[in-house]
Amino acid sequence: MLIGVTTCLYALVTEHTPLVAVVAIGLVLGFFNSLQFTSINSMAYADIEPPESSMAATIASSFQQISMSFGLAIGSLIAAWFLGAAPQSDPHAVVGALYDAYLSLGVLTVISSLSFWTLRATDGASISRAQTELV
User: Most CB contacts within 10 A, which of 38, 41, 119, 125?
Assistant: First the structure.
């Protein structure tokens, strides 16, 4: 959810926004992306028996590459959709279209994060050293 909210912040950037604020948004987004990748990669190996860890690594790596490819494709399509209606000779129209694209991508990211609500409290207990009893 934080990645989606941070992505939406790019829609607030104007020509009057201080460079330090733009860099801060980028750093915060990078931090949350890194945190997400670390968390998801950890969950990929949770509750996996050692003999199956090689297969889990292969599947996790493949899904990560596929998800990044789909994310890039969807982001490009959304930006193209908004930019398609904007006259390319009008900088304000182009910037407005990009703002709409950032907002749409942020909202889409927040919606996609709802899939993590399907996780159970005991998922990943083997790697978090949780004291809960596995169900």
Answer: 125
| 6/32 Cα distance (integer angstroms) | 9
Q: Position 110: which residue type?
A: V
Query: Is 8 within the bounds of a domain?
Result: yes
Give the residue from 21, 38, 23, 28 showing the smallest Cα distance to 6: 28
Residue 44 CA, distance from chain mean position: 17
The phi and psi torsions of 18 (rounded to 5 degrees) equal -60, 145
Asked whether 101 and 82 are in contact (CB, 8 A), the reply is yes
Closest to 80 in 3D by CA, of 69, 67, 94: 94
Which stretches of the chain are DSSP H helices? Answer: 2-9, 19-45, 53-84, 91-113, 125-128
16 in any annotated domain:
yes
Global pTM reads: 0.77
Structure tokens belonging to residue 128: 């978090």
Instruction: Express each pLDDT in 31-59 by its tens digit.
Output: 999 998 888 877 777 777 878 878 888 88
**Domain ranges, residue 101:** 2-128
